[in-house]
Design a protein that fits this description.
The complex is a heterodimer of chains A (about 550) and B (about 200).
Chain A: H1 2-6, H2 15-20, H3 25-54, H4 62-70, H5 77-117, H6 126-145, H7 178-206, H8 219-250, H9 264-298, H10 305-319, H11 334-346, H12 348-362, H13 371-394, H14 396-402, H15 406-436, H16 442-468, H17 483-513
Helix pairs in contact in A: 3-5, 3-6, 3-17, 4-5, 5-6, 5-7, 5-8, 5-9, 5-15, 6-7, 7-8, 8-9, 8-10, 9-10, 9-12, 9-13, 9-15, 10-12, 13-15, 13-16, 15-16, 16-17
Chain B: H1 11-44, E1 51-52, E2 65-74, E3 80-84, E4 88-92, E5 97-105, E6 111-120, E7 128-133, E8 139-141, E9 146-155, E10 170-179, H2 187-194
Parallel strand pairs in B: 1-7, 2-10
Antiparallel strand pairs in B: 2-4, 3-5, 5-9, 6-8, 6-10, 7-9
Classes of the chains: A mainly alpha (about 550), B alpha+beta (about 200).
The structure holds protoporphyrin IX containing FE (HEM) and copper (II) ion (CU).
């Protein structure tokens, strides 16, 4: 390989070699999107299992699943089923965040469009890019294996939730190797993202075309830049955090074990120092996509460009100093609670700036309601919903009531499962013609939208009621009092499932019908550089660097 | 912003090196947070960490009288009985007091333990000053041995000037004895043999 890689920037490998050893940012972007789709589908199937189980009070399907998937002994099947439910929520959370949202939004769209949008021929370190991708694949394999090896005594998989709190995740709760697999998966995924972040930042700082100043970069590039800095800042902390857990588990250290003078709360601080910025890592690229889409289909430059860019920067900064709002119940001092409540609420200001700027961009624009725009408007709607419940939860007094309950589940699904996913779909439909060269079917795309929009709202809106009524999260069963809204919530999964099927059909349909998209299917509103290239773009674009004079927004 | 020079050969490496240094610094910081966290708690009494002042007691006694309760726990894997001589005392700030805890090893072998401790409510930590304590070191007890161990402490009169202490009338000092680990036995084999067959 070593000899051919130096030529990697100029040759055009085909077949398996093209993808296995790819150093081309577009091919790697495609690989990331495929990986994210696989992660997303598995994550979705897990959530389908959970919602089926939760449709009725009582425990129905998981004991059988445990026998089927994990070979549990029938006499132990009830306990194994309960354990498996918790394994499902854990793996669902990990997959959706690390192996669906991040790969598609950052690795997929970021790799595809950051170089093109700044007029660069490729990423700064193409081979590093390849390493990042395959590290993530290995991480996914480890995460899935963890479901099938011993975790808690006599059980398989780790069921302590995606936050991995000790003592659930230490030898006390999960002596078996399942947790070690999860930790190693996190290490690899983290390393992959850190390398990716270094690559993005270097590309953006060093490879912009002449005239493409930082303040002329499209907002999607800004969003990836801020995200990359966040990744670089917080992923090493996650790595440190889980490494200490690993040594606690295997080498007799006592970082999190009070018996040896350690403190399990240290874990929570470190985890959330990573965890809260992580939610912005997932949503910021979405913000960038929505800005591009809204401006394109309103045929206007984004309202308040600089405000939008620096709102993202300030969200990144503020997002890094509010972590303990996840820990109000651990017995923090009143003053600490006051600080974290206030700081969290302050984030609503830059977020509000973004929402209002999108609306102001649409205001007076000549809007065309093509599929990407419809997804973007859907995003603004659901994300605002999630933002409002977020402000409620920022209050320490309210959060102590709702902590570990379904109100929280509803909140973060409105921001992540709906918000990030809607942004992801907006980006997908926006760029699909560019990436594939073919037009999708507008009707099917809108069917995809309405099914998911109706579906997720039926699934998650009633969970606010369940949470207000006191239903705790991470349980396989619940008292009959919660039966009605759980039934409604599970019913919504019909629409969600259909929408996923329609989405696959959209792709099949587009590749079968082969409606050519042309360089710019969106008309005058699409001003960024990718629309100056043919669809799909050539294997190597910008042999002659473009020169940017006006704004590239 | 200067127009970038897209083909300068060394700039990408420099940027990447700076970024790697930054990420490494964060990694180091996450490990450094362990001693930092401890030092921070010891310095501020944060989260109910009592202060340690092995030197002497303050000369001037204060005004307020508070109740101090004593709580004693033993981790499951340590075969000890452990209880305070008295459940609670009342104490003037600035006054130094000695309280004894009774301990007994209930097993036929020598065992050793180390106490972890804390006071509640959390904001009282900064004013609860230990002069001497059995919890400062690892303790051993022979087979069926029994002993009485003292803790010497005072309440810092400075608490009278603290807003957060105004409503506090009772402070609880809590201990939990954990077995000190013998050189770690391999965990998986051990738990595998322990787990009930079902
Ligand atoms: C159709 C879509 C989805 C459904 C029906 C769904 C359903 C669920 C359910 C039932 C739980 C477990 C609740 C509990 O018992 O505590 C859960 C947890 C979770 N979900 Fe989703 N989910 C969906 C999509 C997503 C997406 C797209 C993301 C992220 C991007 C996501 C992130 C999470 C996280 C982080 C958890 C918490 C896991 C834990 O408790 O450790 N979900 N979801
Ligand atoms: Cu947070």
């Amino acid at each position: 390989m070593a000899s051919s890689t130096t030529a990697g920037a100029h040759d055009h490998p085909r077949g398996l070699r093209r993808f296995l050893f790819s150093t081309n940012h577009k091919d790697i972007g495609t690989l990331y999107i495929i990986l994210g789709t696989i992660g997303g589908v598995v994550g979705f199937l897990l959530s389908l299992g959970m919602r089926l189980e939760l449709a009725y009070p009582g425990v129905q399907i998981f004991p059988g699943l445990a026998e089927l998937l994990q070979g549990a002994d029938p006499s132990m099947a009830l306990d194994a089923g309960k354990n498996l439910y918790n394994v499902f929520i854990t793996v669902h959370g990990v997959l959706m965040i690390f192996f669906m949202a991040m790969p598609i939004l950052i690795g997929g769209f970021g790799n595809w469009f950051v170089p093109i949008m700044i007029g660069a021929p490729d990423m700064a370190f193409p081979r590093l890019n390849n390493i990042s991708f395959w590290l993530l694949v290995s991480a996914l394999v480890l995460a899935v294996i963890s479901m099938f090896v011993e975790g808690a005594p006599g059980m398989r998989g780790f069921g302590g939730g995606w936050t991995f709190y000790p003592p659930l995740s230490s030898n006390t709760g999960t002596p078996g190797p399942a947790m070690d697999f999860v930790i190693l998966a996190l290490h690899l995924a983290g390393a992959s993202s850190i390398l990716g972040a270094i690559n993005f930042i270097t590309t953006i700082f060093n490879m912009r075309a002449p005239g493409m100043t930082l303040h002329r970069m499209p907002l999607f590039v800004w969003s990836i830049l801020v995200t990359a800095f966040l990744l670089l800042l917080v992923l090493p902390v996650l790595a440190g955090c889980v490494t200490m857990l690993l040594t606690d588990r295997n080498f007799g250290t006592m970082f999190y074990d009070p018996a040896g003078g350690g403190d399990p709360l240290l874990f929570q601080h470190l985890l959330w120092f990573f965890g809260h910025p992580e939610v912005y890592i997932v949503i910021l690229p979405g913000f960038g996509i929505i800005s591009q889409v809204v401006s394109t289909f309103s045929k206007k430059p984004v309202f308040g460009y600089l405000g939008m860019a620096y709102a993202m920067v300030s969200i990144g900064v503020l997002g890094s100093i509010v972590w303990a709002h996840h820990m109000y119940t651990v017995g923090m001092s009143l003053n600490a609670q006051r600080y974290f409540t206030l700081a969290t609420m302050v984030i609503a200001v830059p977020t509000g700036i973004k929402i209002f700027s999108w609306i102001a961009t649409m205001w007076g624009g000549s809007i065309s309601f093509r599929a990407p725009m419809v997804w973007a408007i859907g995003f603004i709607f659901v994300f605002t919903m999630g933002g409002i419940t977020g402000v409620v939860l920022a209050n320490a007094s309210a959060d102590k009531q709702f902590h570990e309950g379904y109100y929280v589940v509803a909140h973060f699904h409105y921001t992540l499962s709906l918000g990030a996913v809607f942004a992801l779909y907006a980006g997908f439909y926006y760029w699909f013609p560019k990436m594939s060269g073919y037009m999708y079917s507008e009707t099917l795309a809108k069917a995809n939208f309405w099914l998911l929009f109706i579906g997720v709202n039926i699934v998650f809106f009633p969970q606010h009621f369940l949470g207000l009524g006191g239903m705790p999260r991470r349980y396989i069963d619940y008292p009959d009092a919660y039966a009605l809204w759980n039934m409604v919530s599970s019913f919504g999964m019909i629409f969600v499932t259909l929408s996923l099927i329609v989405w696959f059909y959209v792709i099949i349909d587009a590749f079968m019908k082969k409606r050519l998209a042309g360089a710019n299917p969106w008309g005058v509103g699409a001003t960024t550089l990718e629309w100056t290239l043919p669809s799909p773009p050539p294997f190597h674009q910008f042999q002659v660097l473009p020169r940017i004079s006006g704004s590239g927004r | 912003m200067n127009a970038p020079a897209p083909h300068s050969r060394h700039r990408p490496r420099l940027i990447a090196a700076a970024l790697i240094a930054g990420a490494t610094a964060m990694l180091v910081l996450s490990f450094a947070s362990v001693p930092l966290y401890r030092a921070f708690c010891a310095a501020t009494g944060f989260g109910g960490t009592p202060k340690i002042d092995a030197a002497a007691a303050p000369t001037d006694p204060g005004e307020r009288v508070l109740t101090v309760r004593f709580d004693a726990n033993v981790a499951r894997d340590l075969p000890w009985r452990f209880e305070p001589e008295v459940a609670k005392i009342s104490l003037r700030t600035g006054e130094t007091k000695t309280v004894y805890y009774k301990v007994a090893n209930l097993s036929d072998r020598e065992t050793s333990g180390q106490a972890a401790y804390n006071v509640a409510p959390g904001q009282a930590g900064a004013f609860f000053v230990k002069v001497a304590c059995f919890c400062f070191e690892e303790k051993r007890l022979g087979p069926h041995g029994a002993e009485e161990w003292p803790v010497v402490f005072y309440l810092d009169p400075a608490l009278e000037r603290e807003e957060g202490m105004r409503g506090v009338r009772e402070i609880t000092l809590s201990y939990t004895f954990f077995a000190t680990k013998d050189p770690a036995p391999s965990k998986t084999s051990e738990t595998a043999s322990e787990k009930p067959k079902g």
